[in-house]
From TrEMBL:
PANTHER family: PROTEIN ARGININE METHYLTRANSFERASE NDUFAF7 HOMOLOG, MITOCHONDRIAL, PROTEIN ARGININE METHYLTRANSFERASE NDUFAF7, MITOCHONDRIAL. InterPro entries: NDUFAF7, NDUFAF7_sf, SAM-dependent_MTases_sf. Keywords: Methyltransferase, Mitochondrion, Transferase. It catalyses: L-arginyl-[protein] + 2 S-adenosyl-L-methionine = N(omega),N(omega)'-dimethyl-L-arginyl-[protein] + 2 S-adenosyl-L-homocysteine + 2 H(+). This is Protein arginine methyltransferase NDUFAF7. It is an enzyme of class 2 (transferase).
Length: 446
């Protein structure tokens, strides 16, 4: 699945280290007209999540479809120990981007093989190795993660673990599916243990009957590109409304349309967040809201909720590892948990103020609310039910852990491998706004 977070080198320092605007990031002027985006909307209005899905994945005009080579592959691993420090690393990164002529590299690619090795070690320490190890990866990119994990298991796990393992990549992009097979196939023994299933992981029908065997699911930089919905309220006391996107019949423009809540995914997200009861607050806050009413906009990770529902239904005994960005600086699109909408042109990044202006030329990626991710995970596992009497709850069905990327890699990885001569470590020092979420099943259900 081509759900990937893009890393543009021209604003790495802004994204990871500062809240100031990078001098290389230019704000695109706001346009009232979104004429180029109307190709994604027909005569009938569509939900915001459907608009975002089309803007990213439309077979002809979507961002990822127009850029089949956007996932960069390093010819060789970066030798961090030969770099003097941060400046040398950023200069090398800028040179790599200019030479490769690709849109972005993923962290697992920039820090190969060490990033994947950390994931593999976490699995080794946690998995029940008395049964065959089975791993699914959603959105495997170029196959670097799969190869890195299988390399590590081949060298470090008991031979029976590697010999009996299976690794399945679920990939929506046909070009990436071919690339993954070629990458993993660099080690001939991996091929008999690896396969790619070209399909949408969020489509329940593709998984077949529920699989009762314990397994692992890996999603690296997947959640940020999953479609989101948007809800709107004219003030702090008005009810939430669904946001739809419609096309004006008389002119080629898009606008928002507000409808009463009715979509099941949206209403489920609102229940999990308990948004209907969150607008009360103290007496002072209520008085302030009446004196100074303001509209509210909230982005909901309905795409994440959907894929979690599918995974828990198809793989009820899965263990999950997901990594993503917990915060994105300088987002111009309004609303809580709003996305960064950015395009790349002539080696520079440009940001949009209005998500409706995208026309398949921009990446749309969201910060991950890890607290909400945990609640949705528990909800989809069948443990957490909104408005349920807490005293009657059974034990949790999942044990979860959220770690900063640096903490995860210090525990499971080899941090010395990504350290420069002066002690600077981009994997630990730069990715301050990224987290890794681990969720495993538990038998504590009484």
């Amino acid at each position: 699945m081509a759900y990937r977070r893009s890393l543009f080198p021209s604003f790495l320092s802004s994204l990871f280290l500062s809240t100031k605007v990078s001098p290389y990031v230019t704000q695109l002027p706001f346009r009232a007209s979104a004429s180029f985006s109307t190709r994604f909307v027909g005569d009938e209005p569509i939900l915001v999540r459907d608009f975002i899905h089309a803007a990213l994945y439309d077979p002809q005009h979507g961002y990822f479809s127009q850029r089949p080579g956007s996932v960069g592959v390093l010819e060789q691993s970066i030798k961090f120990g030969q770099l003097d420090g941060r400046r040398a690393y950023l200069q090398l990164l800028d040179k790599i981007y200019k030479q490769s002529d690709v849109s972005w590299f993923t962290p697992v690619e920039l820090f190969k093989p060490w990033y994947a090795h950390g994931i593999a070690e976490a699995i080794l320490r946690t998995a029940n190795l008395s049964i065959p190890l089975k791993i699914y990866e959603i959105g495997g990119g170029s196959g670097t993660c799969a190869k890195g994990i299988m390399d590590y298991l081949k060298l470090n796990a008991p031979s029976r673990v590697y010999d009996n393992m299976s690794y399945i990549s679920v990939e929506i992009s046909p070009s990436l599916a071919e690339k993954q097979t070629a990458t993993v196939g660099e080690v001939e023994s991996h091929l008999s243990r690896f396969r790619v299933e070209h399909r949408d992981a969020a489509d329940r029908s593709g998984w077949g009957e529920a699989e009762q065997q314990p397994c692992w699911v890996i999603m690296l930089e997947v959640l940020d590109n999953l479609p989101h919905d948007l809800i709107y309220s004219s003030n702090q006391f008005s009810p939430w409304m669904e946001v739809w996107v419609e096309k004006h019949r008389e002119r080629s423009e898009l606008s928002e349309l507000y409808k009463p809540l009715q979509d099941p995914l949206i209403t489920s997200c609102i229940e999990i967040l308990d948004l209907e009861n969150a607008s009360g607050g103290s007496i002072a806050k209520r008085m302030w809201a009446k004196l100074f009413p303001r509209s509210r906009r909230c982005w909901l990770p309905t795409g994440c909720l959907k894929i979690l529902e599918v995974l828990h239904g198809a793989l009820p005994k899965m263990s999950l590892i997901a990594s993503d960005f917990s915060y994105l600086p300088d987002v111009k699109v309004p609303g809580e948990r709003a996305p960064l909408v950015s395009m790349k042109r002539d080696g520079k990044s440009y940001d949009y103020e209005n998500y409706l202006d995208t026309k398949g030329d921009a990446d749309i990626f969201f910060p991950t609310d890890f607290w909400l991710l945990e609640r949705m995970d528990h909800y989809c596992s069948g443990w957490l039910k909104p408005h349920e009497d807490k005293s009657s709850k059974k034990g949790k069905k999942r044990r979860t852990l959220m770690l900063d990327t640096s903490a995860f890699m210090e525990e499971f990885g080899l941090p010395t491998k990504t350290r420069t001569r002066d002690g600077y470590n981009p994997l630990l020092d730069d990715f301050k706004n990224t987290k890794i979420y681990i969720s495993v099943p538990t038998h504590n259900t009484k």
